[in-house]
Amino acid sequence: SVDTVAGLDDDNVVGPFPIGFDFPYYWYDVNEFYVGSNGYISFSDDALEAHPFDPYPNPMRPNDVLAPLADDLLFGPDAWDSTACRYAVNPAADTCVIEYRNVPFWQVPPFGNNTFQIILSKPDSTIRYQYYQQDPAVGSGSRAVGWEDQVGNWGYTYFPGVGNEIHAGLAIAIYDTATVEPPFDDVAVQAVMSANSGGFFTIAGEVLDIWADIANTGNQIESTFDVRMTVRDIGGMPVLQNTQTIVLLNPGEVTTVTFTPWTPTIDGQYTITVENLLSGDMNPNNDEIAVECHVVTLPAIFDYTDGTFEDQKVWAGPEGGFANYFVPPRDSVRIARYEVNISSGTACQDCYRLYVLDDNGPGGLPGDTLAGDTLDYGGIPGWQGADIFPKVEITDGSGFYVVWIHVPAANPWMGTDLTAPLSFQTWEYTGAFAPSRWRYVEDCGIRCVVEPWSVPDVIVSIDEFQRTTVRGAQGVTPPNASLDFAVNFRNTTPGNVATQWWIDAYLGPNLVLTRGPYSLFLLGGQDVNRIYGLPVPSNAPVAANYMVFVRVGTHPDVSHQDSFPVQILARGEQ
């Protein structure tokens, strides 16, 4: 069967996808791949390759690359209707074909057409690039065709540049001809504290377990070498250091090293650095990872920058933006406010948006919208934002994205911080989300306020709200109309709970209607759904916009609530 790669857009990476078998590549086997929208795949690296494109091999990420046409290509809504990337594995499960079909070059509007394939053949350990169409010969003015290993040490570039060497009917075959691989000693610090070694937040006074994944990325057995971990404060002074010894590490093997736990006591920014101390290591580029660590006491501002912004960013087109990814240090927190540092621009109304997005999209990408606001820029640079109402509640420790999107083209600009350490948690948005191409050189001026929060015994949520109207009016028109909604009550505890629930309606700050309280009894872990109709009387309050709250607790004390807006229209108005 043929599978279509979903989620590709301008300048992004998606995956991983299964090859369907173990394919021998250099001295190691690979079994999955990431797809870059700019005409390349990587067997292990989800970093973005974007204009300008450097020849292969090179140690800059992404590595482990096959690039039949690394150029500024375009997927997404602005590409052709027939633009696609597809892959298939044969019935024998020994050949995988990855095809880029009818892909234009990026421009406004796009131009050209490119169709080409990558073919992985296990029986003879070959890689083939095949070109059906490549038009025009010159795309972005920057191009790379080639391949490289997982550390960017070995590889090859095929006719670098943007001439007409790549053409329809061309096929490039890459054979494994080496009977003996040249010795290559290389141990990599692969990850520290998370898969992407991203910046994180931890609570002062709580024990932090520090770990790192160490990989033998060479082709020699390595034995009895040290790995050193150092925690430094913002001034560079060591506050903790620990060394662990790895006795044996075979080629391709990855081991997790656990260091002495750390209990920070002072809030602030720290750096956790892990170093490989293997003598004779032939690739210094992957010997060390430094991770940005923020020690906080909640409530706290979650901010990866140091407050000084040496640069700024904006997209040339409208509806572009950036995001920061955060993982709360506790399972249960609330997000109370979000802000962006606007460094320059022209005053404008409704010209940028802030969102909180869940990380429940495919592969941890941004998913459900948890909060959102459209805001004005008054022309004065600095932190701009809004309080979030209702506050976003995180109950399972999952991560979230705080997103800034500018509505017009090239206005306003967001400040960026170029000073190490960096968080590597910055994302870009150009119609789709992707790890920022600048995440290894700067942090975005996007932050949020996170509060402590304990999950109440009973959580209420309005699952569905339906305005019942007279003759299809957009609001609710008295008389003979009602607000019909489905409400869910969930017992978060294993024991039985007896509590109350009620409804309050507000016009601005003024309470104008209460219904209840009503008794509520839930068994341990029980979910209850109820449909409720709230009649709008003929003598309803003035036509206006109201907020309706469903609350649980011991009336009038609220332990949890959810709300929705409703518009009351003038009598007879449509």
UniProtKB/TrEMBL annotation:
Source species, domain of life: Bacteria
InterPro entries: Ig-like_fold
Protein name: CARDB domain-containing protein
Species of the source: candidate division TA06 bacterium DG_24
